Amino acid sequence: MKIGIITQARATSTRLPAKILLTAGKRTFLEHHLDRLARTGLPVIVATTTNADDEPIVGLAGEAGVPVFRGSELDVLSRFAGAAREHELDAVVRVTSDCPLIDAEVVAAGVDRYRAENDENLYVSNCLERTYPRGMDYEVFSVPQLLRAEARATLQADREHVTSYLHQNRGGDVRLLNLPWQGGGSQYRLTLDTEDDRLLLTTLIEDYAATTLNCADLVEIMAAHPELAALNAHIEQKKLGE
């Protein structure tokens, strides 16, 4: 079974424009993200748009040796389907590029469970229920399920958010499996969406060597330094459809 990670990336983010192209520790957040994903040992594909604004993303991915698929900005579901077809994947791990500290071992554990279940209709995730810090999220599902969603989804939110058709089980044939985390820290934001998120992530990377740490290490640091958690604790996550 060929499983690949597809990470969606674009420069026209609204709350913090070109956020993944900003730098911490002399590397862009996108480069940190791709470095972390490479540790899974799985093929990684960047799914970006055909917009000129996203040329720097294409360039950075190329420098990292990561292939790029370019598609619709708003119909991200079709972008993922196109990337999966082009790379002849059997299953997809979906992540987002605003997670520069995503833990490769967490992702790999989800993939291992998906392989072990051997069920085309299975959807595995660690975020159906929030037990991990934001920034560690992944979803694993089959390409046949992805292609069925592409063919059937009509709601704009389902086209934009890729997997809502699946995890809302709109087709009625998806088996959902959440893999929870017992290590705490679900209140923390290790994702990049605002300037305050950037400040926290930059501090973690530059002052705490966060790029060398796993999820448990990061939670331990956040718990030991409440002043870090306070930097972005007030940020509200965007809701589905926003």
TrEMBL record:
Protein name: Spore coat polysaccharide biosynthesis protein SpsF
Organism, scientific name: Kribbella orskensis
InterPro entries in UniProt: Cytidylyl_trans (IPR003329), Nucleotide-diphossugar_trans (IPR029044)
Any Pfam family hit: CTP_transf_3
